[in-house]
Amino acid sequence: MNLEKLSHRVAPWVLPVLLLAVWQLSVSAGWLSTRILPAPSAVIEAGVSLVRSGEIWTHLAISGWRAGLGFVIGGSIGLALGFITGLSTWGERLLDSSVQMIRNVPHLALIPLVILWFGIDETAKIFLVALGTLFPIYLNTYHGIRNVDPALVEMARSYGLSGFSLFRQVILPGALPSILVGVRFALGFMWLTLIVAETISASSGIGYLAMNAREFLQTDVVVLAIVMYAVLGKLADLAARGLERVWLRWHPAYQVNKGGAA
Amino acid sequence: MTAQQPPRLLKGIPLAVRKLRKAFGSREVLKAIDLHIPAGQFVAVVGRSGCGKSTLLRLLAGLDKASSGELLAGAAPLSEAIEDTRLMFQEARLLPWKKIIDNVGLGLKGNWRPKALEALEAVGLAERANEWPAALSGGQKQRVALARALIHQPRLLLLDEPLGALDALTRIEMQQLIENLWQKHGFTVLLVTHDVSEAVAIADRVILIEDGEIGLDLIVDLPRPRARGSHRLAALEAQVLNRVLSLPGSPPEPEPVSPLPTQLRWAQ
Could you say which of A151, A158, A252 has the minimum Cβ distance to residue B134? Predict the structure, then answer.
């Protein structure tokens, strides 16, 4: 029984560990040039030395700051717009088609324009991240509010709820599952946008770290930067899942601890 | 109302419906309904689906506006007694993101928790107060919805087929629960149902709505508690059912018994 549980735990890790071993072996045996791909051990060594020098923290902090601020700005605007169009017919008539039009412009295509506007400093990157995170949150907020069960709204009205209390007790919680889906999409776009923006022009951050290492053919640092992006993306997703678990604990689909009805 | 009246009559709303008409577009769902319901009476409204019985209830609950006609609570318009009127829907309509006790306390202010627990106690679900609605069965959800309606101490309780989706045993339990609570609190009840046997078993009076008009108004003058399956209930049920079934189009009794014997012979 316990052995079975253990093998269930271990099984997902077998393939990645095997791949890493093959990778390590092919580099140390000389089949794979370090110019193309450094050994995993070299990547770890590069990481350790960057941690020792403390350099990695400054880059992580600046990248995290850009991502976080851009996400907060873009997310709040998306949320606000979603509330306006979701809650009022006039808001929908005035805003929705315009927002949908802008949404269809790939925001990364704006990079040349954004560089012209803001130069290559922080504002440009934060602007791009905000633009990338705005639309997924807008769309899912709008959609979530529109899909709140009208039967529940009717019931709540007949029990005397209206205005803000109706919004807080019925509409917002009803739209929350959809909003959180938007948040998870937005977090994906957040890192993607940041990677592109930092790779094009930056004097600090993880993207800068990677581009700088490329100049000196330090493939180990380049791979390390890629791994860091992956870890950061995973952490952001875990945070969003944590929010879902807290805010949607009423939802049968998120009640992980209690078996049964799912 | 005067103090000499028994407390039961003080609690309920006397209801008067005058020339009530409701049309959706060109389709007239209710035409000239006239109805007088004394305070505290338990009235069941039956009829085929689409006859307008749910529409009548929604008008009384203030969810829809009548095309014309008057709804009165005593002498005042019913809309002024909206705080004393509570509607129970066909589905429980609990907010899934609120704990059961918070669902019961919906729309209440101040320290309502003890009252909500009391209301849950009355429907036998006090020990489930801190669970999510998703953990309840259909019948339990309806009991929570009933507690949510009762905590407002309604003087008019409107029930829109709230037992329609329940299994037979749970239904009977719920009927008895509603009957007991009604006897205790004395509110006026309007129960819309498609189940005629339920109507005659539980109500003081059964009203049949046909094509937007009142087709039958029957007083069920039987003592409570009523024995289910008694022949007097069965007779009343048959009376209502005959009326419902004989109505649509065709003449009620076309050539009564004569073809039967020949049919039997052919069948053999």
Answer: A252
